[in-house]
Amino acid sequence: MNQKMKLLIMSVSMSALLITACSDTGKGKTQTDADDDGTGAVTIHTVTSEYSSAKYPKGDDITNNVWTRRYKEKLNINVKTDWVSDEYETKLNLAISSNELPDVFRVNPSQLRQLVEADMVMDLTEAFEQHASERLKGYMKADADSYESGKKDGKLYGIPQMHWGLIEQPDFIWIRNDWKEELKLQDPKSVEDIKNMALKFMEKHGGYGMAVDQSLDYLNLLAIAWNAHPDMWIEDNSGKLTYGSIQPEMKNALAEWAEWYKLGIIDPEFAIKDFNAMNADIVAGKVGIQPYYQWWGYNPGVDTIANLGKDAIFYPYLIPTVDGKEAKQSIFFANNNYIVMKKDAANPQAVIEILNDYAYIVDEGNGKEKPETLSALLDNDIAHVVGAFRVLNPNSDYEQFEAVSKALETKDTSGLTTSGMWQKYNNSVEFIKNATPGATGDYLQQGAPKNAYGLAKKVLDSNNYIKTALWGVTPEALSSYGTTLDDILTEGFTKIIMGSESIDYFDVVVQNWRAAGGDNAIEAVNEAYGK
Amino acid sequence: MLKKWKQQSPYHLMLIPSVVLVFIFSYIPFYGLIIAFQKYNPGLGFNSPWVGWDNFTHVFNQPNFVRTIWNTLYMSIFKMLGGIVVPVVFALLLNEVLHNGIKRTFQTLVYIPNFLSWVIMAGIMLDVLSANGIVNTFLSLFGVKPISFLGTPSIFPWTMIVSDIWKGFGFGTVVYLAALTSIDPGLYEAAVIDGAKRWKQTLYITLPLLMPTIVLMSVLSLGNVLNAGFDQIYNLYSPVVYQTGDIIDTYVYRLGIQQAQYSIATAVGLFKSVISCILVAVSYILAYRVAGYRIF
């Protein structure tokens, strides 16, 4: 065979290989469904995303673990995972557009809307009504608004997966304790107190007074002190819905912040600092005040304690108003995931049974199941590997906190009925005894003398909050602007704070926002919520 | 004719795999462009409702869109100019270095940043350019107040332009150095006999012979005139510099991609491709008509 012939054969076979490779991917999809394995078992197909922090026993993974075996053994249901991806949303969108849907899967609000519009998902009203346990139905009652958001025209298409509870939503001003005690300062009772505390910290320790970042998300947490509710849809005086960031109250907040920036209280470089850069300064001990969420103790708390020692701990305080009261908190819509089933899928009752079982294990398992069974199902983040097969108890953090704080107070642990309670309790005790950095998060959330949930519970119990009016799926007209509407506000507000524009520029920013689509968005929101 | 075909047939056959690949991955997806004219719903796929030019008008009616086009052009044109001039000059200078070891060392040193991703580069730049960073500390020796290179709208585009050229010029340098070695030394010898010094040699021999490569590189980069560097800017910008730093890609990212708005992202992508395609064609024709250079 001559050289040329060899080349020819090689190139031909290469192209042939390519073509067969392509057609193979087309064929590979055919599933061999062994739905009936003689035992009357039901098979359900699902898809899921990777859950990287879960630590499986050897041999287990997200498609084959203690939960899937439990479905099989206890409920006689085979759960088959068609694919696992850490680009779940994208991959699911592809599956939706190629109509290769599994029987049951988790979607976000906009996917739910699209699927219902395209008539691709099943009406679950009846199945849920008939098969859901009282406990599961109780979850839906506990957050009825989220339950409603899964319905269209009175029919339930998406079962909301719920959340840990509204108790996680109130925000605080976190203050470094050793600095505060060293200067013998009182707890902040007004905005003026916060300002003065920042100035005293700066006098003593140099640098700037308060850590915030370029997104303004953290600085905006303080806006409630002026009774402004940025980023939230609220009702105005006439009963129409409007956007919190464009209200005159916000202008007052910005005027004060511009003053703070001039005084050097707000980080002079905040405009170019992202979340990580902001927290790096906390961890390095450069600053002692930060407006933050309830999870400060997890991040940056863990690193702060590890780096600076336990005395550098920050404690949360309720954000006070300008006139010295406790500020009304903003509460946002918290449900971001729904469980849906493919239009022609069989056995919706099997899915509901699994959901019942999950709720049972988490809420009632303690005492009824063996400790090692529970530990295997829940510890090491195994509780989170179930993908679409769970609904959270929207009261779980609230109940958990009550039990944990009572146990810490009385040293009587009989009230700890879930493994989550035990975890928070044990870590709190661990921090009190050994100041272990890793336990900082749980300690500051629930176990510390000044803890975040204690304050948050007070907010909830006294109803000192405003709920967003946009309680459900975002109207399409609003999401078609992406984040560009908020960007206009962030850009304009940053200029005002940094002093490159005067406070009167606020009206120009609002005007720009309205012209860029804000007015359309307001209209769409009002229409969607029937105002 | 037949004989020629026979002779070349193995080469044509060897082309098949890449032609097939290009066809599958670059031409078939053209079909997807129709979603730029639809209100795309993944559930309905390509049967989504038609909306005509709505997606385009939605984007073009955004008050800040004009600003992003201007910023894109401003930054990418200066990046392009710098991306041509700097490597040519540097290659010429490096070519004069006689010691081979030094030459290679420099060549490698300037090429290295090219391999770093912008995510890493951005981390370094944020640190180096911060108020207490190396650059500002150095400037303070001369009594200059700290400059916020990434937080001042008037400076930000130039920070982007300079850092982009710095990061990328090593690649151009290597290309031009390769072109320089292919110049016939006989020409220089002849020029020396005619009494030409270094400068005249550069002007009358090196540059003209380098011109085809320069034109090729320029025309290729013109296709990217609407890409002002998403990776770089996305990792370094912040709301305070949107005014001068927001480019088409970052804007569309915030407008569409984050919220999975495929139609809008496709519409802008189509718009950019059409403009870029025209620009490449025009520059190609110009290069041929005006300078008489052909690439293909």
UniProtKB/TrEMBL annotation, chain B:
Classification via InterPro entries = MetI-like, MetI-like_sf, UgpAE/MalFG_permease
Q: How does it sit in the membrane?
A: Multi-pass membrane protein
Give the chief site where it resides: membrane
Write out the GO cellular component annotations: plasma membrane
| Organism, scientific name | Paenibacillus polysaccharolyticus
Task: Name its cellular compartments.
Answer: Cell membrane
Q: Which residues form the signal peptide?
A: none
Span of domain ABC transmembrane type-1: 69-283
Q: Which UniProt keywords apply?
A: Cell membrane, Membrane, Transmembrane, Transmembrane helix, Transport
The UniProt record lists the keyword Protein biosynthesis = no
Q: Which family does it belong to?
A: Belongs to the binding-protein-dependent transport system permease family.
- Protein's recorded name: Putative aldouronate transport system permease protein
Pfam families, alphabetically?
BPD_transp_1 (PF00528)
UniProt keyword Transmembrane present? yes
Q: Which residues cross the membrane?
A: 12-37, 73-94, 115-135, 155-181, 202-222, 262-287
One GO biological process term is: transmembrane transport
